[in-house]
Write a structure and sequence with these properties.
The structure is a homodimer.
Chain A lengths: L3 E5 L10 H10 L15 H16 L5 E5 L3 H13 L5 E5 L4 H14 L6 E6 L6 H14 L3 E6 L4 H9 L2 E4 L13 H9 L4 H14 L7 H14 L4 E6 L5 H15 L1 E2 L5 E2 L2 E4 L10 H6 L4 E8 L24 H18 L3 E7 L4 H22 L7 H16 L1
Parallel strand pairs in A: 2-3, 2-4, 4-5, 5-6, 7-10, 7-11, 11-12
Antiparallel strand pairs in A: 1-12, 8-9
């Protein structure tokens, strides 16, 4: 069985005790904004799987293109899942911005491939239907691609639900208590995943097993992560890098950025503005971009590594380009990549940055489910340690009004 | 003529006077590590254009795939140029990591398209030929795709130069005094750009005109940027975000991250570890990821916006999905995107984060050349204001030895 191993370097063995935060988080499971922790339990899991399977059975055989309209938590999880786990056929397009050039190019690409749109499924995701980016994208896409099959993934009630009902579109439900950044294992992420042949039951099984570990009093990986990272913040290490040494995990670093930033960047219960600044990086590439700063710049960082043990064997062969490069002969790309991760970890510890390392045996749906649940549970605990509500985003709501003001002035 | 407009919000009107740093930077032009400022002047410009044109004339007619092997500054600039300016035909593949899955998939994709490799040009870039990632990639690619046409872009002497000579490959030269992160307008970036039909003379012309502005005592955009950003650091705002509201500029934010982090993250002349932490974001998308943190979290950030005035007109149409969304009718995607940028800028200023905004009239080679020269000149000045050498990377060199140690132990 694939499991996740978590190592936290001693500099991060914080004195913070997460046990009461863990207990409080455990008490919240299934209530209010923490209904997301029921996504991998019955009856919610069974209801979601049944409705998704029914729709996938109907739509997948003809589907060659899936166009997803979603932003923030409605897109980041899906992008991460598909980069990690791939597709068995349909091409996935995600429009998560309103850049007109990207939107037009994407529509043109799909129309060229499927002029009648008989093989195209548009999935629009918005809990409320009041997110301007998504309603705008929908207006444009409906004009250009009205003959496609539309699916709406939305809340139990609201603007998009009503519109989908009027248009007689198939719908899937984002339950109450499942916020955008906690929604990847709800129909929001599971439907596009299932359309591409990803084993969504394994995703849920991985999440369920990890979430059980994340409720333990002892040896709780989410408790250790959150206590260490909150402890690091108190020591002035508030820049929290996630650096997978595996391209397929790169989009999970971006998923983490939203989860960590939007959940924990808040005014705390004492009225103080707090929050870590998460940064996404990719190894080994960003050793040639950010490493110099981490090594010689301020000691204000936690560098987190995501390493994958089993990778394809691509041998370097027996002929180096020069004597100085002979040491590479007989090695593989993955052995070099692993060596670089170890070397960077060591370099960071020597440079007085804190580190953590999560090692996945391999990338499969189970391990990815574990990874997701680990971080979502870590946020639930970290919010309590920091005295913030990890489930709201008042700062984003304010900006929506400013946008309406700005566009009205034009 | 397209020009760049730079606005810096009053909270960033730092009291730092950059004039002596500008003067010192002007004195450095063309010497030692600052020979990069001759890239857009004769005779260097003419020599580069002539050698690139000769090679492009020979290779472009048959070329359908360009595979670039490069990491850090050898790849980031090319990725940014091509995302911004596109290609008139050849498909560009960049391998800037040693992830075995990505490497194998990329090779397979090219081999499927061009089994005889008659239409494939492999461009390998390393100033020394001693960068393990690149020599490894070259070992793998030569085994798999030995029949392709190889071009090496490398220093005047060194391991890769010797190897290319032995293999009778065409070569282009990265001149001394042009470091990786300052090399996008050298043959490193210009050759792949020219192969894809990008107007490299316009790139250089834009850089030349901007660099002239960046040498002025008064109204010097690089001086204002660097003084403001260094001033912000002194006020505790050391997280420096670049957020283009334009997908085509997204990779320039990553190019900037390397330039800013690796140049300025250093031990300064007083022995203190300093350096800003640059962060790449994309608008409007990351309003749904990082904005909450910026709005309610610590006031330790400078949010920089890159806005493009002229974008494709994609009208939203006259039918909103509900009464509450009627305000979108008659608008365009670009008007909404511009409104969001303005709203976010205002929200950040209200939230006591500092801001700057660079507005490009449109995205063309001239404006992109201006943008590049602006930031490279800003680094030259900022290095002097901070008392660091922006042209070395001792922290990266150390990690290379650790990698060799780690792989030898296996």
């Amino acid at each position: 069985m694939t499991t996740i191993d978590l190592q936290i370097h001693s500099s991060l063995q914080s004195s913070i005790d997460p046990s009461s935060a863990i207990e409080d988080a455990n008490n919240g499971i299934g209530k209010d904004d923490e209904r997301w922790r029921m996504l991998w339990h019955e009856p919610m899991q069974g209801e979601h799987l049944a409705s998704i399977r029914l729709l996938v059975k109907k739509l997948k055989p003809q589907c060659e293109n899936i166009l997803l309209l979603g932003i923030g938590g409605s897109a980041l999880g899906t992008k991460a899942l598909h980069t990690a786990l791939g597709s068995d056929g349909p091409r996935l397009f995600v429009l998560d911005n309103i850049d007109p050039h990207t939107v037009q190019t994407t529509i043109d690409t799909i129309m060229l491939d499927d002029p009648t749109l008989e093989h195209t499924v548009v999935t629009v995701i918005s809990k409320s239907g009041e997110t301007a980016e998504i309603t705008s994208l929908l207006m444009v896409v409906e004009q250009a691609m009205g003959e496609a099959t539309f699916v709406a993934i939305t809340g139990p009630s609201g603007t998009l639900r009503e519109y989908a009902s009027k248009k007689k579109w198939a719908t899937l439900t984002v339950p109450d208590g499942v916020g955008g950044r906690f929604s990847v294992l709800s129909p929001v992420g599971l439907f596009p995943a299932a359309m591409c042949g990803i084993d969504i039951e394994e995703l849920l099984r991985g999440a369920r097993e990890m979430d059980a570990r994340c409720q333990q009093t002892e040896n709780n990986p989410a408790g250790r992560l959150s206590a260490s990272l909150v402890g690091a913040m108190q020591e002035g290490k508030a820049i929290h890098v996630m650096m997978p040494y595996c391209d397929r995990m790169e989009n999970f670093a971006r998923w983490y950025v939203q989860l960590w930033a939007e959940s924990l960047g808040k005014i705390n219960k004492n009225g103080v503005r707090i929050g870590p600044t998460p940064v996404a990086a990719i190894g080994a590439t960003d050793q040639h971009s950010m490493l110099q700063l981490w090594r010689e710049g301020p000691t204000d960082k936690v560098i987190g590594f995501v390493s994958v043990s089993e990778m394809d064997a691509v041998p370097l062969g027996k002929t180096a380009i020069s004597d100085s490069q002979e040491w590479l002969c007989g090695k593989t790309l993955s052995s070099l990549l692993h060596a670089q991760q170890k070397a960077t970890e060591k370099a960071m510890q020597e440079a007085a940055q804190a580190t953590w390392t999560i090692t996945l045996d391999q990338i499969d749906a189970f391990a990815v489910g574990e990874f997701i649940a680990l971080w979502q549970a870590a946020v639930a605990i970290a919010g309590r340690l920091l005295g913030v509500n990890p489930y709201n985003q008042p700062g984003v709501e304010l900006s929506k009004q400013l946008t309406r003001d700005a566009i009205s002035k034009k």
